[in-house]
Amino acid sequence: MTLLVLVATATVTGLLHSTGLVISVGGITLMQVHVASALAAFPLAAWHVLARRVRPRATDLSRRTLLRSGVVVGGAALAYGGAQGLLWWTGLPGGRRRITGSYQAGSFRPGRMPVTQWLDDGVPAVDAGDWTLHVDAGDGVRSYGYAELASFRDQVRAVLDCTGGWYAEQDWEGVRLDRLLPGWGRVRSIAVRSRTGYGRRFPAGDAPSLLLAVRVGGRPLDPGHGFPARIVAPGRRGFWWVKWVDGVELSMTPWWWQPPFPLS
Description:
By secondary structure, the protein is an alpha+beta fold. The chain contains five helices and 13 strands.
């Protein structure tokens, strides 16, 4: 029964979000409920399969079974395409989603961009005068103050696509990580740490495309969006865009040696 409720919740919230009829309730997006219920259903589904094992049969690989599977897959693809076309034709908000399912929120208007953070992170109060960025480039640790970082003018236009179901395109400004990490070509990853303890590990080859941003839309970041500095990682989902960065380190640990999604 619990598995049934979770699957039903994931299905209903997914349909409501994809049409745009209901995007959030009480500050919680239906995308978040959809993903959470689906993840919660996974171990119960695995338990169900293991507890009620069905032995493989020769007919499972028959031509008829293959054709049936093809019909199901093809029908699902046609249904999805038809639904997207209907959303576009009717003018419902769901017709304007990105391929990730996210809706536009605050593009080129940073003040209207939602404030979200991963799981149990809160927005820390950071004083620019007391804040220091520690960079370990492999030949020692160098410290940067806010004023020094703010003097850099590297720019990139990039889309922040949050797993909460929204996206925003902005003009970000700061310093490329390859400027701060001259030895990036000799290591395997770049570890970025937030003041909250949150962090992600990036492939070393991403250094030229990663920006440590101190401004967005020509103005300093506000606290909810990562002041004094945050990572801008074009092409990666929002949980990679580490906020409130206070440490960057070159490492020989592979970038993939971390959970696919952060655990806290």
